[in-house]
């Protein structure tokens, strides 16, 4: 087997055996898998569930508390009762009375109800605050999802770019292999020297190494995407290499509505609402607290036998069933040393700081959007230029190929035309996916990343 055929088999057989079994992973499928399986998104969903539980009526303080108590006591005593200086009717000394194993039991059970009727509206505003906390958690989960989508698409587009680069390099390798065949035929007929064959073999070796490196990078990128999608690291698939850009007028509309939709701005507004409720919760300390209490109880006492002066021994039983009580209380902290006043002042300062932070975030979002839009437009222009450059280099390569076959140019000049075309194609691939990724990052800033069709 010749060296050329060996290199060809070395490159193409593994590639064909692997990629013939691959299925296409669409962008929609990748997004669905990321939303369902990604670890970061799953953790964010758990945080939302915790916030939802905290914002339920069970954590609001509006419901009463009901406690049950029960007790049982058992005693076993040996007692002796003496009667010094006491006599019976017949004049004899009165005998001592001994009671062994005197048992007594006591049982009790009760239900106690407590309900806060009014607490200065503290629980009312705290309940609203918990609702805002839940809203904040959903926004934080959305931010996690958006960042995960950008991460996922970054890797997805890298796979797409490397896939297209691999196809281009396979074509370049095929051209170099064909060059060797032609050079060998020409050498046999005395039309060129051995040097042309060696040059072609060197170029084919370089193309083979470039293709192998691209295959390795592609395999690594797929493993990276498998991590993002939380699937088997050995999963093999192809990706969709088509890219559709959103019309500019639609992006401009999104930018006009960005302040109302950007997740960072929405988080600052939600924090502002939380700070407003903090002020009201702290002010509730100035008002009284009114509470209601109720209880229902049962008691039973089984007394031990005891000696009376008459000398008889009697056990006793006492039961109280259905004892209940109702009560009301009013507590008004007329002066707490100033702690409530300090808490209210600090809450107002925190609210003012949050207002400043919101203005800062809005300004930064507007700046980031302008920068992202400028970058997107620049990359889109570069992509259009690279498309035209590929068209120009394809024409140049075809003409160079014709002239090379006619012997009008050398193999070095033909190789240069081939390299120029290869570079133009890979640069176009890079520009295309860079522009699309810049578009997605711009959409993230406008708050529309999760609302567009892929």
UniProtKB/TrEMBL annotation:
Its main location: membrane. The keyword Chaperone does not apply. Residues 1-20 form the signal peptide. Keywords: Cell outer membrane, Membrane, Signal, Transmembrane, Transmembrane beta strand, Transport. The keyword Transport applies. SUPFAM superfamilies: Outer membrane efflux proteins (OEP). It is found in: Cell outer membrane. Pfam families: OEP. Belongs to the outer membrane factor (OMF) (TC 1.B.17) family. This is Outer membrane protein TolC. It comes from Maribacter dokdonensis.
């Amino acid at each position: 087997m010749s060296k050329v055929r060996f290199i060809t088999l070395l490159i193409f057989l593994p590639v064909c055996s692997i990629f013939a079994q691959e299925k296409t992973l669409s962008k929609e499928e990748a997004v669905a898998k990321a939303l369902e399986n990604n670890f970061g998104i799953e953790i964010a969903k758990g945080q939302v569930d915790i916030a939802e539980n905290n914002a339920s009526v069970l954590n609001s303080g509006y419901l009463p508390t009901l406690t049950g108590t029960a007790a049982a006591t058992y005693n076993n005593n040996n007692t002796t009762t003496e009667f010094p200086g006491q006599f019976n009717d017949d004049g004899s000394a009165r005998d001592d009375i001994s009671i062994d194993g005197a048992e007594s039991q006591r049982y009790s059970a009760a239900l106690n109800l407590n309900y806060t009727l009014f607490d200065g509206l503290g629980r009312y505003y705290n309940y609203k605050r918990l609702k805002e906390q839940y809203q904040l958690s959903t926004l934080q989960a959305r931010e996690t999802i958006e960042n995960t989508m950008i991460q996922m698409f970054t890797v997805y587009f890298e796979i797409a770019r490397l896939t297209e680069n691999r196809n281009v390099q396979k074509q370049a390798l095929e051209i170099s292999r064909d060059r060797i065949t032609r050079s060998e035929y020409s050498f046999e007929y005395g039309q060129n020297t051995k040097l042309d064959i060696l040059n072609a073999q060197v170029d084919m070796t370089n193309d083979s190494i470039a293709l192998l490196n691209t295959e390795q990078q592609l395999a690594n990128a797929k493993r990276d995407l498998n991590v993002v999608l939380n699937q088997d690291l050995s999963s093999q698939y192809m990706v969709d290499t088509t890219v559709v850009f959103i019309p500019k007028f639609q992006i401009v509309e999104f930018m006009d509505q960005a302040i109302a939709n950007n997740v960072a701005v929405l988080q600052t507004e939600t924090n502002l609402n939380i700070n407003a409720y903090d002020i009201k919760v702290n002010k509730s300390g100035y008002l009284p607290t009114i509470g209601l209490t109720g209880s229902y109880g049962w008691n039973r006492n089984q007394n031990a036998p005891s000696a009376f002066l008459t000398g008889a021994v009697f056990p006793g039983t006492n039961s109280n069933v259905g004892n209940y009580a109702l009560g009301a209380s009013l507590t008004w902290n007329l002066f707490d040393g100033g702690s409530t006043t300090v808490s209210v002042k600090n809450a107002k300062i925190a609210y003012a700081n949050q207002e400043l932070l919101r203005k800062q975030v809005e300004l930064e979002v507007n700046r980031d959007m302008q920068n992202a839009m400028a970058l997107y437009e620049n990359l889109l222009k570069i992509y259009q230029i690279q498309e035209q450059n590929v068209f120009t280099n394809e024409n140049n390569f075809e003409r160079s190929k014709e002239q090379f076959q006619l012997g009008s140019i050398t193999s070095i000049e033909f190789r240069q035309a081939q390299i120029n075309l290869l570079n133009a194609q890979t640069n176009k691939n890079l520009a295309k996916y860079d522009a699309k990724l810049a578009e997605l990052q711009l959409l993230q800033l406008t708050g529309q990343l999760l609302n567009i069709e892929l």
